[in-house]
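pinging the channel bc i need a second pair of eyes. not urgent but kinda urgent?? the chain im working w is below, pasted from the shared doc
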Amino acid sequence: GFIPLLQFAAFLSLNLGLLNLLPLPALDGGHIVLLIMEGIRRKPLKKTTLYTIQMIGFALIVTLALVATYNDLMRNFKIF
């Protein structure tokens, strides 16, 4: 029915919000950590440093997604 659909949508929204707060550089939690670091240092980070940190975070997220997909495929299809 409609109520279980709303509950599922709320569950997904909450989980996505919590996942987004993880302190990985490409996510909002990573931005918060970088802002805290800038506040402690009392000067902004260089743009090249920010770019490098963001790319490393993005690479970590993509790698995690690929490993999870690979593990799911291997578990479900038992190819190797």
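so Residues 2-77 form one domain. and Helices lie at 2-20, 28-41, 47-77. — does that match what u expected or am i reading it wrong
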